[in-house]
Amino acid sequence: MITIIPEAPENVAAFNVTGEVTKEDFENLVFPIVKAKVEHFHQLNYLLYLDTDIDNFTIGAWFEDVLLGLKNLINWNRAAIVTDEKGIQNFTDIFSVLMPGEFKSFPKENLYNALYWCKNGNEVEA
C-alpha cells in the first residue's frame, strides 16, 4: 500500500510504502499527485519511504514505477529513496548517474533530512 506523507513540503510528492504494493497504488495515488506537482512546479521532487520489503512490489507495480520514471524523465529534479536496505541504497546512488536530476538514498532515521533535501537541495546540518 502507498500513502501520502502529509508533512512533506508543498513542492515534494512524498509517499510511504507498506505491505504489498500494486499497480493500482501507482495509478490511483502516485500518478495523479505526481502529475499535479509537475503541472504546478514544472519539475518533480519525489520521495519514497520504503517501509516494506522490495519483494512486496507486484510485477504491475514495478511496471508502473518504471512508467512513472519514463513519463516524467525531463521533469525529474530531486528524488530521495528512504530505506535501510543497503542494496536499494546502492542501486539508487548508481541510478542517479543514469537519470536526469539528482537521486539520493537516505536511511530511515533521516526521513526529515530527506524531505528537506527534496524541497531545496540542501541537507539539514547536524
Automatic annotation (TrEMBL):
InterPro entries: SpoIIAA-like, SpoIIAA-like_sf, STAS_dom_sf
Short name of one Pfam family: SpoIIAA-like
Stated name of the protein: STAS/SEC14 domain-containing protein
Organism from which the protein derives: Chryseobacterium taiwanense
